[in-house]
Protein 1
Amino acid sequence: MFQNAAIIGVGQSAYTRRPEPGQTALHFMRDAVVAALDDARLNAKDIQGMAVASFSLAPDSAVDLAWKLGLSLRWLAQDTNGGSAGMSMLGNALRAVETGTAETVLILGGDATGLAGYAKVAANYNTATQKHLSPLGHGGPNGVYALVASRQIKKYGLEKSDYGHIAIAQREWAAKNPYAVYRAPLTMDEYLAAPLVADPLSRYDCVPVVAGAQAIIVARPDRAPKGRPGVRVRAHRASYNYDNQEGDGLQTGISTFASELWQEAGVRPDDIDVASIYDDYPTMVLAQSSDLGLIPGNDLARFCRVTIGERRFPMNTWGGMLSAGQPGGHAGGLNGISEAVLQCQHRAGERQVKAARLAVTTGYGMTMYRYGGTAAAAILERVE
Amino acid sequence: MSAGVPIWRCAGCGVAYFPEPLLCPRCHGGKFESGRVHEALIEEVSVIRHMIGQENWQPRRIASVLATGGPRMTVGLRDESGPGATIELFEEGTAPFGRAKSSA
């Protein structure tokens, strides 16, 4: 448990499917930084450390961004772990503050690649993708997770509509999130009638890419705004290249540390009030939830139809990326953390889960060849 | 186009890999014997019907396959072969493809 480090502020930019001409990732990141500083009631000069992740920085790096933001720092990190970058940066920032390396750390992620830019990122994600997948016309991550989804459907006896329960429930939450790009109600008929993108995945199974940014501030707990409950991280774990791509992708790196995570946190899966599970695809929501032990009996179909379908468990309460949008994989991992913080502080407005006190958040990403190779999770707690 | 797909078999423990590793993930040996694998069993298939950023995209089929005596890999399918079928593998550039075995 982190005793001397807590999350004291969150902020985000607007999200948009199509940025205006001249509107770059840096503009969105600036907006998120300003919002997070305002939320934490800090000035930019109070920030002593920064962690950043973005597909859009090159040829700049983290220090160039610090320069553009006017931040003079004594701790700086740039993270490349895709969908788990947010969680990875959170862990590093907590340790930096806990050890006194920096008193206040800004965690930042954002992108504005546009669809064409994202297509280039997807086709050149790593050497394996560039050499062995892109020439197939594999469709980027959609194609990769289509094959994982086929395995999951076969192994667990799922139906297409099971993924629909996740997409539809999250859309209901998104209706209460003014930042979400898709807020109109989604019916099962609409879900099932949506065009296939990469069989068996259809439109509402695939995360929509948006332009946007997220920021979080980690600091000593006594730097938190007065009168607001703090959010402490009871446990944090991460995993990188957990199985050398030799498995089926239906487990994630979370499976390697889940029991340790719960043990360190001193709570159990059924103690959790609200969950932010990285949702690039419903398939991976189920894989991570299974790894965490959130699915009783590991009955994935029942979890979809009853637990989520009947709204018995609040998951991805900002709408998830499937409805709110994915501002690049990097910032995508930060929005779930931000939502968990707001829920624990009872600041989630219309989507507030009653008396939320404990949250689990995850990140998952870096599609190396057959599935993602990075994952991380944390247990967050409201502290009065 | 060349017949088969390259694999790298660890000289220490005999496990075959694709793509090429630097060290064997199983025994961490650093020596590999390169070879080619010519057949694979199709496990899952997807049809890529939409490609982000592309207009006039023509659907393409891809498959996750278990190479005979070798690793799992993702291949482009050049015909309507489906799960359970054994296909022959070939390489175009650096990418693995497959199609139904010729009857010859």
Protein 2
Amino acid sequence: MTRSFSGETVLAGIDLRVDRGETWGLVGPAASGKSVMLKTLCGLLPPDAGAVVVDGEDIAAATEERLMLVRARFGMLFQNNALFDFMTVGDNVAFPLVRRGGVEPKEIRARVSARLRAVGLAGTEDKFPSELSGGMRKRVGIARAVIARPDIVIYDEPTAGLDPVTTQKVYDLLARERDATGATVVVVSSDLDALLRFVPRVGMIYQGKLRYDGPAKKARDADDPVVRQFVRGDIEGPL
Amino acid sequence: MTEALRKLGERALALVEEAGGIALLALKVIGALVPPRLLRVGAAGLRLVAPSREVRNPPRVPPLSGRELLRNLDKMGVSSLPIVALTAFFTGGIMVIQSGIFVKRFGAQGLLGWGSGYAVFREVGPILIGLMFSGRVGSNNAAELGTMTVTEQIDGLRALAIEPVRYLIVPRVLAMVISMFCLLIVGDLVAVGGGMLFGKLLLGVEFSSFYYSLRDNLRPWDFLVGVIKASVFGLAISLTSCHFGTAVKGGAVGVGRAVNDAVVAAALAILISDYLLTLVLR
């Protein structure tokens, strides 16, 4: 797929396959198109050319009505969490279940409490997002992304701005969720060490191209000097 | 000269683009207001002529959020009541002061209620309350939606398979139209009260004289014209503020620009639609 903004190419012919139940990580320098790629994957941004196929259906060519149905299978954590600031934490987490319907209010309340307990935020249902710290908001975002048990979960920078301990807690949480649901997971993160421990397979995007897509453990020794320098964090190199 | 023409052309194009965006939003709002039951009937009919997958299995359309509507009615309508009442009270007073010159000159105390009521009901009331509502509610709405846009909350809704127009915009449009409708009625009553009080204090016109002048000379239509105008102004304010709020680009600077554009566009829309409605609703 390709995607440009105001004449500037952000995704220049990305070719990628993520299998059902797989966990795939994406890394790359700032403003390299990671978030654009995630939004394209879940149909929030249409590609200029190419296809985005989810379970055999090309969502790039789908109508908005079909896209709604496909998106209902996704859970997404945004870089800025995208919590609705006019709602309480409880309402935010419950939101996907409430709007999709079919679940009793009592059941929704129980599931919200369980999700919040799982992310270490028991008893925060009545608080507003503005009353929480950055790490807590991030965990609320994770709870909201997974409460409807989506088939595919996308995490955009799940640990941005968090301290190392909280970062590890968040990744433990993501691992527990993944193991419990068997969902397909795509993660973008700038925290390379934690990400490489979490994902078995990782890709690196640079100048609109996927420069690496392979085992996370071998990324440090990749043939491509750009990938090697980025993953190792070397100052000297082509970057 | 060429540069000036080029800039003029650019501004004209930008204006047409914004007007098109507002018109498109209006169409989306109308589309979202079509009851789901009607959609199902339509889909059943279409099944016979266009058996595509979307038509065979129409997506479930969630109902409009009553909770959002109530929240916005409270935030936009109920909270605006004090400032609208204050505006209306002094508007009634201003009308009396303006009429006072002629009332004194011609000894026309018996026409004071009619004169000030006619001006307030048909023209000054809807316009002043509309501009006040735009400044208070329209700007707030544009800022809120703009912030939601730049902090990815709108994308967050779409990612949760929720149509932002149906969930966020329609309740706001309905709330602003209903609020303007109700505020105008309250505002008219308060303005008449203000007119009576100032008439008595400044010109010595009795309450009863003011009241009978109003009752005997004004038609219900004069009052209705104002109510219709206020509802149209509410629609104009809601569409402009929602359009500029959701079309924000950039961060805080973009939100500031959107608020500015929304208020200016709403004021223009109020004055232009007032001119057209005055021509039609004589």
